[in-house]
Amino acid sequence: MNSPKKRLHALGSAIVGFSLLLAATANVAQAAPPQQSVPREQTLILDIDGGKVITPDLWNPLVPGSRRDHGFHQSMIEPLFILNYMTGKINPWLGESFTPNAKQDVWTLKLNKNAKWNDGKPVTADDVVFTIGELCLKVKELNCHGAMNEWVKGVKKIDAQTVEFTLKNPNPRFQLDYFSVKIWGGINIMPKHIWEGKDPLTFKNYEKGKSPVFSGPYKLVSFNPDGTEFIYDRDDNWWAAKSGFKPLPAPKRLIWTWAGPPENRVALMADKKLDSLMDITKGAFDTLKAKNPNVIAWYKDLPYAVLDPCSRTFELNTTLEPWNDPEIRWALNYAIDRDQIVQIAYEGTTSKSRIPYPMYPPIQRLDKLLESKGMFEKYPIWEHNPKKTMEILEKKGWKKGSDGYYAKGGKQLSMVITTHEAFIEKQRIADVLVEQFQAVGINASHKKEAGQLWGDNFAFGKFEARMGWQMCGSVSEPWATLNTLNAKWIVPVGERANGNQWRWKNEQFSKIVDQIGVLPLGDKRIDDLFVQAMDIYFKELPVIPITQAKKLIPFDTTYWTNWPSDDNKYAPSWTWWQSFYDILVAIKPAKKS
Amino acid sequence: MSGMTRGYVVRRFLMWVLTVWLGATLIFAIPRLAPGDPIAAMVLRMSAQGQIIENSAELIQAWRERFGLDGPWYVQYVNWLRNCMTLDFGYSLTQFPARVWEMIWRALPWTIALLTFAVIITFILGNLIGALLGWRKTPPLLRSLLPLTLTFSSIPPFIFGLLLLFIFAYTLDLFPNQGAYDSRNLQPGLTVEFLASALHHAILPAMAIVLTSMGGWALGMRGMMITTDGEDYMILAQAKGLRTPRLFLRYAVRNALLPQLTALALSLGLIVGGSVLIETYFVYPGVGYLLYYSITNGDYTLMQGIVFILILTTATAVLIIDLLYPLIDPRITFQKR
Amino acid sequence: MATLTAEPVAARPAPQVRVNRWDSPWLNAKLIIGLIMVLSVALSGVVGGMFWDLRLARVGTSPQDLPPAFVPGGTWAHPLGTENSGRDMLAVLLTGAPRSFRIGLIAATIGLLIGVVLGCLAGFLGGWVDRLILIASDAWITIPSLVVLIVISAFVRQISAETMAVLIAMFAWPGPTRLIRAQVLTLRERGYIRMARLSGANTFDVIFREMMPNMLPYIAASFTGNVSGAILASAGLEALGLGPTRIPTLGMTIFYANQASAVIRGMWWWWGFPFLVLAIIFSGLFLIAIGLDEVANPRLRGLQVKQ
Predict the structure, then answer these.
(1) pLDDT, tens digit, for every residue of B14-26?
(2) Which of A7, A546, B19, C279 makes a 20 to 30 Å CA pair with A527?
C-alpha cells in the first residue's frame, strides 16, 4: 500500500501551509513581548474575569466596546475615591474630598494636589471639567453620559484642584454612586491634554509600543493579539508613592491572563502559574487546595467564599395572576427551603438571605435593626412550611387534582422560572426551586434564556418568574435597593422599564423611598423610614430574598502574602474591580529578596 | 463524454450568485425576526453597573442612527447587500469603535491555519479508515479494530478537549495548555522559534478536531466504497487482474472520494462554527469564538459579517468542485435535461 | 416512506440468498448484536423503572458527590454514584439515555427523510427543481443553527423532547440532500436504471425500487452519524434553554459535569458513564448499519465466508 507516503506528503504540505499562514499573522500582531524579563517572585499573575478581550487595542474606557477588567482599571485608571465595604466609609484616592451643600445639590470636589498623570503632567480641575463637561455631558453615546446627564447641570473649575458640580436635583449619594467604586467601577477622569481635539467615540487611545496615559502605578507593556494576555510594568515614578500618599506596590510586573475553562485555570493555579482566580466552584477549590496547599480563600472553612454585592432573589411578575396576590407570594415563600438551596446549589459556600441586601457590616446593622423591631417574627421569612403553602392555596380556591397539581377553574397552577443562560449559579438555584414547588403541587419548570433575550423579557415585563439579582444596588446604605421597587419606574407591560420591572405598585412604599432619597447619608431619620418601608415590603413580598451571593476567590500565598481575608479584611477580594488598588498596595512578597 | 459546455458554466455561475444572495438575505432576515432590540440591549449593558438610566430612549436613538439601523427595513436591506459586495460591514455593534473587518482579520489567519491543518488530516484519516472498512479485502482483524477509532465521534468535543488537556497538558506536561504560541517571549514572524512554538501549541487542538470528527468522514466513505464496489468498472478491473493496492486506490478510493469532496466543501461553515469549543478550551484565537460571541451577545453586524464570509467561501468551494466534477468523474454528464 | 425503503432491501437480494444458503440473511450476527445494544438503551427507562426509583434523577434527592459503589467511599444505595446537585447517576442514565436516543432517532430520521426525498428529486428530475433545491440547501447549510435557534427560543415557552428533535432536524437535511443527489446522478447513468426507465417504469418506482437499495449503505452510514450528531446537538440546545430541563439528557449531564469541573476533580463517573452509553448507541447503530449492508449487499456477506 503506498498510501502512507501520500499521507506523509499531504501532512507535509499541511504543515508548510500552516506555517505560512501563521507568518501572515505577524502583520496583525499588536505589540511586541516585553524586552526585559522579570522573575516570577516579582510578578503578580491574575485571571481576566470577563474572558477574552475581543478588541485588545482599544484603550478608550468611555465607549461601549471597552473592557476595563483586564488590568486597565485595576492598574492604570485610578478612581477618585474607594468605598470601604467593611466600614461603609469612602476613602480618598485621586480625590481628596467631595462635599455637598446642605441641600445636597451642589458638590465640591477637591483633588489630591500631588496627583500626576504617568507622563508627568499634574491631574487638575481642568481634566475633571473637560471629562464631565466636554465628554460625558456633550457626547450622548459615551457610557458616562447617562448618569452624568441625569444629575449634573454644570461643572465649573474653582481653582487648580477644586471643581464644583451643580446638580439638577438633590442627590446625597452623588459621590457614593458614581465616584467611589461602589460596584465594579465608576466614572473616571481622562487627561485633557491627551483627549482634547480627539473624537471621543473613535479614539482608541493606543499607539503601538506606548502605554496610554493614565495616573495609575503601572504602565502597559504589551498584550497578545488574541486579547488573552496583558502585561504591565510598575511605574516607579507613581505620584502616590512619590508623595508618600501610598506605598509603591510590591509587584514589579502584573500579568492579566485568560486561561479558558475553569479546569485550565485551576490547573495553572495548582502549578503556581496564577496567583488568583475569579469565582470557582467548591469542588474545584477543594481540588486546588489538595494540589497546592498554599492556596487560601476569604474564610479558612466553609463557606470559604466572600460576599458578592448582589444578593440572589426569586422574582415574580406582579401583574400576572395569581402572582399579583401577596398571599400567594407568601405561599410560595413557605414552600422555599433555603437551607436545601445553600446545600445543593452552593454546596455550602454561601448563606441564606432574609432581606434582599448583601450582608456587609453596614447592612448587618440594618438587619439587626429590623430584628429588634420584631420584623422577622411578624414576617417569618425563613419558615419552610409546605403545609402553610397548601393552606393558603386552598383558602384561595385552588384544589389539588389527581395529577398532584393545584388547579382553579380548569387552570393548572404552573410557573416558568427563567434564568440567564450564562449563569450556572442561578440555574442551580432555579433547579432546586422547581423541585420545592413541585413538591407542594405547583407545576414549576425552569427555562434558560440567551442573555439579551432574558434582559429584554425582564424590561418589557414578559416573564412570569425569574431567578435573578435585580434588587442589587445597596452595599452601605439602604436606599439604592429600595429604589429598585419605586413605583415611579412602572410602565405598562410591553414597554421597556428602566426600573421596577416586576411592576409592583405601592404608593406608600414609594413615598417613603423618595423621602429617604433626599436625606443626607447617615441621617438619623433614615433608620425609621427604612423600617417602615421594609414593613410594607415584607407584607407584600414582591421579590423574595433567597441567598447571599458568593464569590469563591482563591489566592496563592507562594509568592505573595497579605491577601485580604476574614482575619484581615482591609478590602473585599475582588481582583476585577477598580478597588483592587487597595489590595495592590497591601500585598507583600512571600520571600524577602 | 459531453464534459463541460459553456451553457453549463454560465448556469452554474448564476446558481452561485443566487446561493450567495439567498444566504445573505437569510442572515439579514433571521436576526430581525427576533423580538427585542440589540441597540437597546447595548445601551443597557453600557449602564449596567448598578445604575439606572432615565433617558435611555434618547441614547438608543443616537446609536441607532450611528449604525444606520434607523431606516425602514428595505433601506437597511439594500445597504446590507451593498456592504456584502464591498465586504465592508461597518462597525461592530458591541465592540464599537472596532470595525467588523478588522476584528475578523485579527482572528482569521489562526482559524485558517489550524483548520486547514486539522481538516486535511481528518479528511485523509477518516476517509482512509472508511475506505478500509468498506473494502472487501481488508484483513478481518483490521476491519474489526478500526470501528473503535470511530467511537470518538460520539463524545461531545468539549469533554474530549478537556480530557486531552488533562492527560497531555496537566498530567504528562507534554503540550502547553493554552494559547497559539508563547506570547510572553516570542513575536509572531517567520522565525524557527515562532513556527515551532505555534506548531507545538496547535497539536492538541488539532488532535481534538481530528479525533472527534474523523468518524463522520469514515462512515460516509465506507458507504461510498461499498456502492463503488458494485460498479462495472470495478468488476472489469478485477477481471483484468490488477494488483490489489492499485485497485484499492486508483479505482475504488478515487471514485468514492468525489462526493466526499463536495461534503467537505459544504461543511466549511459547520467546521468554523464548531471550532468555537476548541478555541474556548485551548484558548486558541479564531473566528469560531468571534461568531459565538456575536450571536450570544446580539452583535448583528459582526455576526452577519462572519456568516457572509462563510457563505461566500462555501459557495465558491462548491462551485469549484462542481466545475471540476465532470473533468474528474467521467460517469457524470451534463447534457441539457 | 419507511416501508418503501425497507421493502426492496428484503426483496432484492432474497432470491440469490436462497440459492446459496439455508438460513435467512436477517440472522446476521452484527445486525443482532447491534439491535440488542440499541434496544437495551431504548428500553432501559421502561425496564429500569421496574427496579430503580427514577425520581432519583431529580435535583436534591440523593447525597452529593458520591463515587460509584465499587469504589471506596461509594454505597450500593447509589451504585453508579451521584453528582453535585444530588442526582443519582443510575437514575440519570436510565431516564436520560432513552430520551437522548429518542431525540437522536427522530431528528436523524426526519433529516434523512427530507434529504432522501429532496436529493432524489433533485438528482432525478434535474432542471429547475434541481437548481432550486441546491441553492436552498447550499445557502441554508452555512447559516449557523445557533442564530436560528436563539430566535426560536424567544417564541417558545417550554418544549418537549420531540419538538426539540424537529428543531435539530431543521439543520440535518442539507448534507444528505447534496450527497444523495450526487449518488443519484451517478446511478441514473447505470445500465439497469436506464433499462428500467426505458421500459417505462415510473420515476417513483425507479427511485425507490431500483436506486434506493444501492444507496442503502450510504444512507445507513449517514443515519448512524446523524443520530450521534443529533444527540450531541441536543445538549447544546438544552444549554440554551431549548428543551426540558428538569431531568437531564446524556448530553446535558456531560455539560453539567463539565460546568462543575468534574474532570479535574476526578469525578470520572459523572461524565464517564454517559459517555459509555453514547458509545453504546453509536456502536450499536454502526453494527446495525454494517449488518444491513450485508443483508442488502450479498457480495459483502459472501466474501466473508470465502476468507
Answers:
(1) 999 999 999 999 9
(2) A546
